[in-house]
Amino acid sequence: MNFLVNAVPSESLQLPGFDDLDREWLRARSSVKWHRPGPDVLPAWVADMDFPVPPAVTDALRDAVERRDLGYPDWPAGSPLRTAFARRMADRYGWAAEADRVREQTDLIQCLQLVLHLATSPGDAVAVQTPNYPPFLATLSTMGRPAVPVPMLDTDQGWRMDFAALDAAVTRAGCKVLVLVNPHNPTGRVLTRAELEDLAAIARRHDLLVISDEIHAELVYSPHRHIPFASLSADAARRTVTLTSAGKAFNLAAIRCAVTHYGPDRLLALRDAQPPDLYGTVSPLGVVATEAAWRDGDAWQRDLLTVLDRNRHRVEQVLRTRLPQLRHHTPEATYLAWIDARLLRLEEPPVDRVRKAGGVLLDGGTPFGPGAADFLRLNFATSHAVLEDILSGLTRALAASGQ
Fold first, then answer.
1. Where does this protein have coiled-coil stretches (predicted)?
2. What is the CATH number of the domain that holds 308?
3. pTM above threshold 0.70
4. Phi first, then psi: what are they for 197, rounded to 5°?
5. Do 34 and 74 fall within a single domain?
6. pLDDT given at position 10
7. Which is it for strands 258-262 and 102-105: parallel, antiparallel or unpaired?
8. Residue 306 half-sphere exposure, CB side, CA atoms within 13 Å?
9. In 3-state terms, what secondary structure has residue 212?
10. What is the DSSP letter of 53?
11. Is 106 within a domain?
12. Residue 242, SS3?
């Protein structure tokens, strides 16, 4: 099945490969986003994009398969991703990350779980921004590491971190670890250098290990700029473990490939003392795809950001004009909109209302942490036409509420 429709130029079809998606192709795929909701519901929930992967990635994977290059890789010093990651950090952010401190894993959540396993013990408290990515919060619960929530502040200028609350929470709970998500999922906030330096001062004062999830770093909208936490100073570098992947920025979740950059010497030594295959080994095809994305995918990514930038402003426009009872800040990064529906005072979770009355599946609610019960997360990484139908369903479900 073709993944594109035969499009004619129109206002709603602006970029080939992004705005001319075939919904039959989307529904025919086995990935969870479109498969699980069923044929009568439009999905805007799980954080996958609807767009085909970059041609450079497709070409690289096809070439590897056609060459029958599927044997054991010869990587005595680690995969080529170690050097590729260091090069990309230097080129993009001016961060001199050390390639020999990079280790490969199959998934970002696995990266987090391994670091927590090595650096903490059951009962150790972990500070975390809330709302937060549900699998991170679920990981802390399952591993017996009590989450110490530090709520993000909703201000007239957008979402902000409460550094006084963080300092107090770390002191009260005796935290030794902070899980930092920057750019932030789900609010889309990008921390400034001044904010990161305030956070670094707290980390230094309390001797915190900072596990920094930076998977959305390449999905930042101008004039905002991502700054790797480990790049702030020598002290920040020594206490930070950086987690990332090409999965979000190039729509490659299924390749199961992520990297961890270990700043602390002791933690890196602990990692390398583990049996080599105990936590799995990354697929060579995942390495091929990630290398291709980082090496040859920038032109595709520029088009992607053009589409996502347009879509985030369209979401903001519709919410402001059709659903003014909802509170929302245009995200500075990611393709996720975090929407406050508390003023509606619904008798059911907003996610349920939107699905039943609007035919649209969003994410949100209590899995995102304390205080998130009446929030919605909308994934706008789709074509103009699909997004319009998603927003129409959202409006249909909520426009008459709270009036």
1. none
2. 3.90.1150.10
3. yes
4. -70, -35
5. no
6. 38
7. antiparallel
8. 12
9. strand
10. P
11. yes
12. strand
Give DSSP secondary structure letters for 304-361: HHHHHHHHHHHHHHHHHHH-TTSEE---SBSSEEEEE-GGG--SS-HHHHHHHHHSEE
How many CB atoms sit inside 10 A of residue 151's CB? 17
Q: Does any domain span residue 1?
A: no
Please check whether residues 169 and 147 belong to one and the same domain: yes
Nearest CA to 185 out of 225, 219, 229 is that of 219
Residues 187 and 223 in one domain: yes
Are both 158 and 235 inside the same structural domain? yes
Specify if 69 maps to a domain. Answer: yes
How far CA 132 is from CA of 251, 327, 371, in Å, comes to 21, 18, 11
Residues in the chain with pLDDT values less than 50? 1-13
Query: b/e map of 32-67 (b: 16 or more CB within 10 Å)?
Result: ebbeebeeebbbbbbbbbbbbbbebbeebbeebeee
Strand pairing class (209-213; 240-244): parallel
Q: Are residue 287 and residue 339 in the same domain, yes or no? A: no
The parent domain of residue 163 ranges over 62-296
Answer whether residue 218 is part of any domain.
yes
Q: Are 217 and 248 in contact (CB under 8 A)?
A: no
Distance separating alpha carbons of residues 286 and 292, to the nearest angstrom: 10
Total number of domains in the chain: 2
Structure tokens at 316: 């903001």
Do 261 and 360 lie in one domain? The reply is no
CATH code of residue 260: 3.40.640.10
CB 148 within 8 A of CB 178: no
> What whole-number distance in Å separates Cα of residue 17 and Cα of residue 242?
32
User: Can you tell me whether residue 129 is helix, strand or coil?
Assistant: strand
pLDDT score, position 403: 52
Phi, psi of 260 (to 5 degrees): -125, 130
Q: Report the amino acid identity of residue 235.
A: D
pLDDT tens per residue across span 307-363:
999 999 999 999 999 999 999 999 999 999 999 999 999 999 999 999 999 999 999
Q: What is the pLDDT of residues 65-95, one digit of tens each?
A: 999 999 999 999 999 999 999 999 999 999 9
